Predict the 3D structure of the following.
Amino acid sequence: MANQKEKKPRLFSSKSPKNGTGAGKNPKTPGFSLSWVYIIIIGVLAYMLYTGQSSSGGIDKEVSLTEFQRYVMTGYTRKVVANTSENTVSLIVKPDSIRSVFGMGTDRTGKEPTITANYATSESVEALVLKARESGQPVSLTYKKGNGMLWNLLMSLLPIVVLVALWMFVLRRMGGGMGGGIMGVGKSRAKLFEKGQNSTGITFKDVAGQEGAKQEVQEIVEFLKNPKKYTDLGGKIPKGALLVGPPGTGKTLLAKAVAGEADVPFFSLAGSDFVEMFVGVGASRVRDLFRQAKEKAPSIIFIDEIDAIGRARGSHLATGANDERESTLNQLLTEMDGFDTNSGVIIMAATNRVEILDKALLRAGRFDRQIHVDLPDMKERRAIFEVHLKPIKLGGDIDIDFLARQTPGFSGADIANVCNEAALIAARYDHPAVVKQDFLDAVDRIIGGLEKKSKVMTADEKHAIAIHEAGHASVSWLTRYGNPLVKVTIVPRGQALGAAWYLPEERTITLKEQMLDELCSLLAGRAAEEIFTGHISSGALSDIERATKLAFSMVAYYGMSDALPNLCYYTNEQYSFNKPYGDKTAALIDSEVQRIIAEQYARAKQILADNKEGHNKLAAMLEEREVIFTEDVEGIFGKRPWISRVEELMRDEQAETEGDNATSPDAVTSVSSDVETEHHDETAEQTKS
């Protein structure tokens, strides 16, 4: 409209413009900070202090009226000022007379020192000035009204006022960045989530997989919503739940879902928020946290990474070095289950280092439940992929089941990273949508590292690497419990000169024979180097490291040694420098580890010698093409006579699908059987060389 004026932005507005018509016409005006007001006030006070001192010009000396008259008659001044409000008369001493009057220089008296006296009547002052003029002194007389003493008092107090104002300003600034400043350092730093306010925006629908853990957490939320359902049967809600699991499995995500679903206040903070440089602050923050939670009961407290304050007491070597942390832990133990009852307050916590927590923290009555959030299996990975693929523009060749099969051992965070990396790779190559190959490249990038195509290798180095990787591929294919091969490459990735990807079995328990086959496959790379090149190289460092750790675990932890059967020397006591066995046992363990590795190394050499022709073909193909897949190995050695656990699960799922389709009136009788031909694209775990 013609009469409608365009709204101008307000100068000191701290509010952002609302979305709507005209929201994008004017740029957002930054909010006005009160810090500038404080700076201006301090500047004005400092200026007043400076001008007040300069107006006074120096010290003020009080004398009697008779002595004052002598100073005037002597010619020490040319100006006399009478203050009619205070009945005082003053003179400013001339610069050349300052030393004569005060006996000191201007560096101590100031440039304009004054002499003041009291008078009874104004006539006496006029008579004094008249007498001085008659004697030849050019003295002027002026009158003024004002409270000079009050002004002098204010000027003397002004420096103190400025310092106090500056100190208050610093405290207020510290209060904004330290949760209340020095006086508020013991306050809790917990972030409060209430229904309809500061919501996380995450519900249980956003948590894929982890059905068991999710069910236990949902039960806590359900109790808070409907406690009568449980109390009628005599049940009590658990006082605490501890989420335990590897990093990236979704422990904090479950807590966010609880905050989004619960109808009660939810306090969230990290274990490190209790730690401070001041003694006693941690315990004070614990008390303040539980005080707030009790006031808003029923409520939930969530402490992420609780191992920061929950470490076992007395585990540090330095005496007194952790008194503050232990006092914080003691206060937490008291608040969770002490004399004071915390009815209606539920504590949730998360950690991936439950073995180092204090035993008193884990007992029933504090953390009644330990909810294990493990790495997802294949079905759970499929559900997690479905969540993370929603915002991504996908191509038509994406198979979620295929993506779930190729990422065993991946956590929920790893899967989110795969989806994001695939989108970045697709954008890098200007793809209109994210296709299957982008996901394959993303998995390779995350597992093996960035591909180094520019790294220069000689022909002999390339041949040696091909021999090494072909040894891994051959032995893993020819052993009963070897992990199914996915892909082998001699293109350098990350710190590895070559890599072999396998599809590891997701076993509940591991047999001794399975561990021995894995050892044999790990040592096959160096065995191939020794047999077919006559030399060994440093490229087997990662293989030997993994093989040594696995053999030591078999002997010292799992009791799988013939010389030390059914004995376990495992201890999870941190900072314990005493071995749980003697020197003779240590020597026996070392000899058993050497024996197992030597036996499996000889076995790998024997398998490679018996299949020399196939290995050489595989190495030549790898050296020529740089990348080979499952069907290439199958074409050389033939189909494996053993069915892997993954293939067995896939067949069971396919049978269930066929059964469901058979019950449908429009079911299609033909079923695709190209599962095995897809193995060449699956990737999971690498053996670095």
